[in-house]
Structures are given as C-alpha cells and as structure tokens.
Amino acid sequence: MPPAAFRPLGSRRVLVHGDGLLVDTVLDEVVRACLEHGGRVWRSPTWDVEVDLVLALRDAGPLANATAEATRLGVTPAADGAAHGRLADEEFLLTRTDGVTVVLADTPAGLLYGLFHTVRLGAAAFDDDRAPERHRPALHLRALDHWDNVEVHPVSGQVERGYAGGSIFWRDGAARDLTRVREYRRLLAAVGINAVTVNNVNVHGEAARLLTDRLDDVVAIAEVLRPYGIRVHLAVSFAAPVVLGGLPTADPLDERVRAWWADATHRVYRRIPDFGGFLVKADSEGQPGPFTYGRDHADGANLLAEALAPHGGVVRWRTFVYNHHQDWRDRSTDRARAAYDHFVPLDGRFRTNVILQVKFGPVDFQVREPVSPLIAAMPATRLAVEIQATQEYTGQQRHACYLAPCWSEVLRFEPWGPDDRTVADVVAGKPASRRTEERRTVPGGRLVRPEGGFLGPAFAPDGGLLGPAGGAGPGGGVAGPGNRPGGGPGGSAGHRAGHGGGLVAVANVGDDPFWTGHPLAQANLYAVGRLAWDPRLTADALLDEWIDLTFPPSTVDDPELVRRTVHAVLDDSWRTYERYTAPLGVGFMVRPGHHYGPDVDGYEYTPWGTYHFADRDGVGVDRTPATGTGFTGQYPQPWSDAYESLERCPDELLLFFHHVPYGHVLHSGSTVVQHIYDTHFAGVEQVRRMRAQWRELAGRIDPAWYERVRERLDEQLRSAVEWRDQVNTYFFRKSGVPDAQGRRIY
Description:
Strand 14 (277-280), helix 9 (297-308) and strand 15 (314-318) form a beta-alpha-beta unit. The chain is an alpha/beta fold and 746 residues long. Helix content is 33%, strand content 12%. Helix 14 (522-533) crosses helix 15 (539-550), helix 15 (539-550) crosses helix 16 (559-570) and helix 17 (573-580) packs across helix 20 (672-694). Residues 77-83 and 440-497 have low confidence and may be disordered. It has 3 domains: 3-135, Chitobiase/beta-hexosaminidase domain 2-like (Chitobiase, domain 2, 2-Layer Sandwich), CATH 3.30.379.10; 142-462 and 473-480 and 487-538, TIM Barrel (Alpha-Beta Barrel), CATH 3.20.20; 578-621 and 658-735, Alpha-d-glucuronidase, C-terminal Domain (Alpha-Beta Complex). The longest helix is centred in the C-terminal third of the chain and has 33 residues, at 703-735. It contains 21 helices and 22 strands. The strands form 6 sheets. An 8-stranded parallel barrel has the order 7-12-13-14-15-16-17-20. It has a 6-stranded mixed sheet with strand order 2-1-3-5-4-6, with helices on both faces. This is Alpha-glucuronidase. Residues 465-499 are annotated as: Disordered. Residues 134-436 form the Glycosyl hydrolase family 67 catalytic domain. It comes from Micromonospora zhanjiangensis. Keywords: Hydrolase.
C-alpha cells in the first residue's frame, strides 16, 4: 500500500494499549503513518488523552481514556451478545463510541489484523454511525507456497512457474538480503496471510538441506516474518533420511526413520519455536514417497505428523498424485480420477495434524475445471484447498486475468447441492448436515440458476458460512479419525480435527519492482488473503478494496475514471481469457514445458495425459460411468447425475465430461464448433477493448504503472490473436464446418 493509504489513520490521534511483539508492530505501523501524515501517538498513557482511535488488548488493564475504557468494558455484549466472551486468536472487535473508534482484541495477532482493517476502511472507520463489528477469519490456515528454488534449477530456474522475476528469498544457491522480505511481511499481514512456505514443493539439491545444516537461513527468514504474525513452513523431501541422514531407507514404518524425523523436527523447533510445519509432494512427478517401500500416503503423512505433533506443527500433504507415464492410446486412463482414487480409501487413517492439500480442480489449475470431488469425499480428514495465484495456465502475468471470480465460485460451490455446505465450509471444518447424509436432490432433478442458467461450478448461491459476525473458523473442525470405527492413529473418541484445513495459494510474487510482474496481478494476491479471511466476499467488492488502497484519490487524477477503468479491464478478464483459450472445459491446449501460448495437440499424445480427444467427428473426454472413465461417479448427488447427463451438464464443462459431435447444440442454442469460433473471436475483441480503455489513463496515474500495464496489454492482444487463429483453425480443419458468420479462419 502506498503511504497515502494510511492518511485517514495517520492524520489522527491514536492510542495503542498492550504489550507483546505484534503489539510493538502495531505501534511501529501507527508511528510510521503519523510521522507521514501529522497525527499523534500514545502508548498506554497513565493520564487521560483525547484520541480518535484506540487499538487495545482487552486484558492489558484499564485505559486512561474514559470513552475507550467504557467501550473496553461494554463492547463485547454490544457486538455479539455474549458479555465478556473470549475472542479467538486473530479475532477483533471494532466499534465507534462518542467520537472514538476502538479496536479491541484478546491476542496481539487480532490487534494487528484490526489495525490493517482500519486502514482498509479509511475514513469510513471514523464515521459516527458505524455499528459494532466482530471480525474473525473463516479459515485458520491462510498460506502462500513459494515455488522458489534455492539454486537455479536447469529447467525451472530460480522460481518454478515464477513470472515476476527472481526469488525474494534465494539467489544462486545463497540466501538473499532480507530487506525486501521486510516489506513483503507487511503486504502479507495487510491481506490476512499467516503462513509462508519459503521453498519449492519439488525439493532439489540445496533446498533439502534447509532442514538441517542450512537451517540458519530459515531461522533468519522466520525472525523477519514473526513480528507480523506469519509462520514459516518448509517443503521437505520424503527421502531426507537417506539424502541427509545417511540411512539406508526412508521407510515410514522403520524405527530408525521415525527417530531421524523426530530429531530433525526437534532441532527445527529449538531454533524456530513458532515453526508452522512441513509441506510434502510425494510420489508425484518423480518426487520420492512411501510407495517405494510398499507403504501408502497415510503411512507417509503420519510419519511426519508424529514428529510434528509434540510441537504443535502440521504436515500439509499434497494430493497432486497421478501417473505421469500414461499410455495415450489407453482411453480408460484418466488423470482427473487420480487424487480421489489414491486418497479416499485412506479417509480416517490420517493423524489430526495432517492436512491434505487438494487442488481446487481434479487436473491442474486450468482456467476452467469442475471442483475436485475429493473435497466432498473425506469427512474424517482435514483438507485445504490449493489455488494458483501465479498464472501458470492463465497468462503468466503477461495477461490481465483477475482470478477472484474463479476462486470465489470454487469456495461457494455446494458439493451436495443448493442450501448445503460449501467448499469453504468443508475446509473450515464445518460438520456435515443431515441433508448431506441424505444426498438430497432438487425436485425434478434439474438444477437451475436464479437467472435461468444451469447451476455449475461457475455459480453457487451464498453458502451459509458464518463470516465476520461469528464464524466457522478457528475452533471448528472436521471429524477426526477417532470419530469413525477403526480410526487411525492420532484420533480418540469424540476428538475434533483441530482447526479444519484452510486456503493455500501458489505465490505470484518475485523481486520485480511491481511484486507480481503485471501490476494488475497484485489484485490476485490481495484476493487470496481476503477470501481466506471471508469466503463470502464478492470479487467486485475485493476489487473495490484493492483499487482504493492501490490508487488513493490523492495520488491519481480523476479517481472515478481510474476506478471505472480498472474494473473495465479486470472484471470479466478471467472469462475473457477463457474465451480465447479453453472452450467448454477443455484445458492443456498449451505449449508443453513452459505452458505459454497455444498448442492444441501439445499434450495430446504425451505420457502426461490426454485432454480433448478431438477427431473429425467430435471433441471432449467421456468421463461417464456407462461409456467413459467413470469420473463423474466420484461426485456426490446431485452433481454425479448432473455431470453425467448431456442434458443437465453445464455448458462451460461439457467437454470436460463428454465427447460430443461438433454439431451438438448447447443450452445457449449454439453448436459446439460455432461456440468455439464465436468465443475465440469475441475474446480477442474484449482484449482489444481492455487495451483501449487502459489508454484512457495515460497521464492520470503513475507513469511506470501505466507503461508496464500498457506493455502487457499489447502482449495480451498479440497472444489472444494467436490463440484465436490456432484454435479456430484447428477445429475448422478437424470438423470441416465453416464459421456461420463467414469470418476468416486459416
């Protein structure tokens, strides 16, 4: 945030009350703002002072300011009806009484988040008619995973799938100066992120040693992040006992291996008492795992969970496990099935400090996928949803693609149908309802949107997740192994699995001056934290917040034009990208390796999997039980029936679930092949309009900002034209069907 975003706070009289490292951070932030904007600051004065804002820990003793003290004693029943009720970790209250805005928390982390919420509100935080508010994060774990390599990898470079320059942590095998990380921690705390993994999930070379003889580097990062309430996590190699410890095996049931992990973990916590835990990619894309020893993922995850449990840490075990040596000739093989097939049989066997990290879709961060069925299939296991802020398959931060609408739809999706739990509810640990168990269907079997379309993963009504006023967040939990007959280790009768799971995003930050390469991609990073805090927030509201903080009125010419223009460029940009790239749920039509630009058959005949099966007669993947891979059967009702049915499958996912003729008529009334032509032509025109709209801001915003975005939009238009021409030409040559509007196809 530019300094101007702090003006409403920094120009006022502020009292900070309480002690602790994070309270010191609150004070430092307020002092910085007041020095910039002329306000005044007191810390816990013993005399009465006239103030505009109080930021206080409730248990830090009486406040000398009479209004603030009265508020401290009486605000809780006004906010939630529970007199003197304890506020959860990270929770805070905000109220306005007799001309004083008061933020109260019971923990320093809550006070820190209350400070940044006050900054986000701006002048509105000091409106006299502001009602009391209680804010509590819906999800306990709100994390970014950096795919940063310690050494420069010969294929993936310094940052795997990094589109914003180099790593902010590492350079050429060494730790970097942490000056930029000191600013990064402010950025993360301001949006609500509370955990960061500092190295790539594909653990290579020097990165493995961060667990042992290079632990000093991790300690240094943890010390910088700690004052902002951010815990460090570490990606580790499952083969570490062999690679680092000299053992002949990494078998998770071997006592020597268990002892090695216990000792290594103890050494980490001795140096980093608030260490968050381990992230593991195992038996996936060449990474080592328990399969080598005839063990399963529960055996592997529980090994690390056992080592972490005495210290309060968690192991996040990624479910991105599939066979990447498939035979493209075998039509029965299906990468989409893999996570469900591997992990659902293990439900109930994971320790309660294991979190399975599930990609939001069943394949690999494509621009359009159905929600992963695994999220609805493991009631006795903690789950976290993984999304990709770094735009690997959505334009690589060379294209403007605001992903909050996609993520919001995923989090609001109701796996068991309307008026039941959402995905956000599941990962928050909200228990199943009776309706879930009954596998309820809509009368008549037809799922409809309020506006008349078909209800698919691209839409779901607000899901009943309790947000700022109360919440299924910390303190909630999914049923642990002990709640099922024959539950696995770590569970006991009636035990709840801690704090549910959370939301994790692959980071899109690098050492680029704009943090994210494309300045407008900052909006995606902002949305990650805010949606993890409150999944009910709309993409429009989040974009408004980001614009207000990024372009304060005092820093731009014609603030309303800036607001309209940024909305015009970003509002529909996700669907625009979809229009000129991936039709009707088909993905992976990208150039292999670097994944930028079109190559319709690029992966079609490779061992990584097949994705569209286009021939002269039709296109799409048959995933039905009757004639295809059976993937639709992994969903609960009503979605298994909806996806299996040609009549009820949402248009936007038709080719993900069905192989159909080019003349198949969609619910929109268009044929499949004409839809491909129309959307690809329309997508290019939308990018052309985006570029023209941005040019209206010349001379009205920071010139460096303007020029970087202008340059990226020029590239986006060039790329969109290439996508349009290659995809349309491919399907014209396959189908032989001309464009009904007579436009040029090559």
